[in-house]
Amino acid sequence: xxMLASLFSPSPLLTTAASTSSSAASSQQPxxxxxxxxxxxxxxxxxxxxxxxxxxxxxxGLLLLSPAAPLHAExxxxxxxxxxxxxxxxxxYGGNASKKDAAEYVYDVPEGWKERLxxxxxxxxxxxxxxxxxxxxxxxxxxxxxxxxxxxxxxxGAVLDNLALSDVGLQDQISSADDVTSAERKDEDGQVYYxxxxxxxxxxxxxxxxxxxNKLYAHFVTAPNPEWGRDEAVLRRLHQSFxxxxxxxxx
Length: 251
Prior knowledge:
Layout: H1 2-8, H2 12-28, H3 33-40, H4 44-65, E1 77-82, E2 105-110, E3 114-115, H5 120-126, E4 128-134, E5 137-148, H6 156-165, H7 168-175, E6 179-186, E7 192-199, E8 203-212, E9 215-224, H8 225-241, E10 243-244
Antiparallel strand pairs: 1-2, 2-10, 3-4, 4-5, 5-9, 6-7, 7-8, 8-9
């Protein structure tokens, strides 16, 4: 049986020869259609990669064109120096920020906010000394008023009522307020400040009031409720930045 199996099994020499003959015949024939397809199939892959790279580059370009969010709080604000000049001595040009030596108060202003120039009439009528607003929403603003002839603060409740008498917007906020809170604090020099927070139906206000140099200073930060919800942290910083100063004796 073994001999029969070996007889019917293909000889290694025949197998090798057949393979060689088949390879030779194949090499002499022209390339078949599938082989041509196999050569062309990889071609779209570099094109896909190129398109993907181009799309990624375009997306990166859009990101570069988009404004980046501020990273450092120090770069977001500038200090405003207010002189609280009387209407008779006020030139009506605004821009008191350069008059540091004559400043009587300071507060922070967000970069990008615009200054509204205060007229002599307005200054003489309600004591408005300075005002800044958000150009995206003018009703989001901070401003300061002052009145002469006040040596010390009245009771905390009476001060807010008196301020509202000359500010119709504040009157409306207080009348429709869900909550009005007040507090008293002292700075490092012992100066007393009254702090008020008015949560109105349509707007939110933070108010800081103090007396110095025989004047009453009132600093207001106010915004409609949608802007308050978005910018509360910034608005509280503006409120906390207000203080009276005296640079006259410094170099």
